[in-house]
Amino acid sequence: MIVFGSAVTKPDVFARCARPGIDLVAESDTRVLECHEPATIFANYNALLDQAAQIEGLEALVLLHQDSEIQDPAFIDKLRTALAGPQVGVVGCVGSLGVRSIAWWEGSVTWASFIHRYTELGGGDFPSLTWNEDDRPPYAQLGEVDSVDGFVLGLSPWVVRNIRFDESLGQALHGYDFDFCLQVREAGRKVVTADFKVIHNHSLELASDLEHWAQAHMAVSEKWDGRM
Length: 228
Hints:
6-stranded mixed sheet; 25% strand; globular
């Protein structure tokens, strides 16, 4: 069974973005978990992990932002294939190597099969590195990475049972994905990319709350100093 989970703070956004994507790929036994608590994404995702860990027959938990829309009818098949690899714990559609901070995009991005859809300046789409299958750079490749972007995370049952987001790291939407990937890798599991096609409906700003972003950056850096 594939389970989907989302922290829903804006029900209209979830209904417009995440829910249609889930409905596109859902199987007959697919379950959808929603967390509506006014808490951090760290806490809400941990609540979803706790719920999913109790589900019998769990094959994977997909955590996705409420503004992420899956566009790939083969999403679940690709997820199962990626998780079938030895010791794979996390699967994402955007991944980097050489990551040394929560700014994962400053590493060497090896895969990014999503569209960034924005509303500013009249709105538009910004296709990422590997969205267009006919125009991929020669260095783009699927496989193991240091970190993935957390707007869509496919997690193995082992990870669901054994790893949790570190709620001490911040009060905003920053650093949770990088820290989680570091925890998974430290536990001996792999973080990998898959060719999921997803639309991320997101502002052009990488980080609108710079104060909390800086706090998360420092907290994660101090936690993993000398161990990355």
